[in-house]
Amino acid sequence: MATIEKSLTHEKEQASLWDVERIRADFPVLRQTVNGKPLVYLDNAASSQVPQVVIERGSMYLEQEHSNIHRGVHYLSQKATTAYEGARETVKRFINARESKECIFVRGTTEGINLVMHGYGRKFISAGDEIIISAMEHHANIVPWQMLCEEKAAGLRVIPMNDAGELLLDEYEGLLNERTKLVAVSHVSNALGTINPIKSMIESAHKYGVPVLIDGAQGAPHMIVDVQDLDCDFYAFSGHKMFAPTGSGVVYGKARLLEQMNPFQGGGDMIKSVTFEKTIFADLPNKFEAGTPAIASQIGLGAAIDYLNSISREHAAAYEHELLRYATERLSGIEGVRIIGTARDKASVLSFVIDEVHPHDIGTILDQEGIAVRAGHHCAQPVMQRFNVPATARASFAFYNTREEVNVLANTIERVIEIFS
Amino acid sequence: MSELSELYQQVILDHNKKPRNFRKLETANHSAEGYNPLCGDQLTVYLKLEDQAVKDVTFEGSGCAISKAAASMMTQALKGKNKQEAEKLFTEFHRMVTGELDEEKTPNDLGNLKIFAGVREFPVRVKCATLAWHTMHAALNNQELVSTE
Ligand SMILES: Cc1ncc(COP(=O)(O)O)c(C=O)c1O
User: Cys-Cys link to B138, which of A312, B32, B39, B97 (CB 3.0-4.6 A)?
Assistant: First the structure.
């Protein structure tokens, strides 16, 4: 208990060191008004905003370096290639991969998971095998596995969760067996905010020699990710949820696995040589990067990581955590509001419902006050079914949000309840 | 909050709270299910048609205030109308909420359905307001969707 209190105080101290106004000045989008009110952007789990330095890095590329990578001997192509491969190095350090070739650039988490499904799943999973996912997965980490199971006559097993939105780890242990060929779980749930104990879950799977894919879409923006310490086999995340442009993303994979896998898409850049009889595939990472990628976006992702490193990720995380705690306290104090997802370990996400008020009506009324939240099923329909709600309203925070914004949110929710009373 | 009070008028809030004709219609000879995958709104419209006229109409389901109130008021407006009149009302309603019809200038039969005119200021909510109408239209026309009891 004492240590919890101590760490709470420590966190509060760190959070109080955070100069949020200075940080906000880095994000031009935040300066606008919506319906005459200052924008209160609380939809960070869907897409977060982009700091000025990332915007400038993108325009610099377009103004001075734009050309195709890996294909030209000319000056511009070399500059673009250097910048693109530089971003890969930055990503490698960000997640502490052993080698940069283990960081495959993809369009986002969805494409990353599909790459593993095609490259690993279709090659190594067959009839009677089992894949384990969890009850709180995003559709991106359900549908590809369902498609694979259908194709291969394999079985999909689901780790259940309790009413707080925490995975039942005993049940998970019970699901693992000799038939298990892959575990795919999220680091942080986008619908509930739960942080899953992935390190121990990975350890359990490895006892059976089963590789683990982590859906890091909500993990990478809020947690320190060390793929070697986690010992995960795959880790997928999206740039647009971590302060970079859309179209950027990464799937990390252990080199040993990536080398054994089938390529994902076929085409240019992923080959060593092509004849009509036979194609020899390129080495990592190019084997998985067919065609011209989103060069500007991936360079932007590198710049976003540089930005994150420059502001201290530890302090940012502590501040976000304190903000989530405050928002949880404010919203739970409002009669009629029910928070969906009350796990002990949570990051960024506050999902809620109001008695007798549909989340869409909440969303529309909040929007009139300039507050952006997401209303709907958050691409996690099984989660909605589990909690027996058609949808939720979801506020999701980033380190540029403020306590004042939480107050505006809470006050407007009170107004919603008034309108519908 | 003026546009907001245009949208959430008392009448709409009242129909949301106490939807009229909100039940399954055992004697229905036409029905259809409407679903809005974006928001999860889901409703079933039941129609009892006799001699091409709407003898009775009810609905069931879950959704936001706008979709529920629209469904509720639709059932009130349709009772006694013939098929042609029902389709005309659908067209007028749809045109009004998408801003194609000025309900104050162009003659129409919308009556108290005009209360939904405020929806046109909220383009993302047009689907909510029209879900019941589309479903009714499907029930009227799509013979395959009919469940005869
Ligand atoms: C947990 C989780 N997984 C996967 C995704 C899919 O990410 P993307 O749409 O960037 O591919 C999201 C984003 O909504 C997410 O929150």
Answer: B32
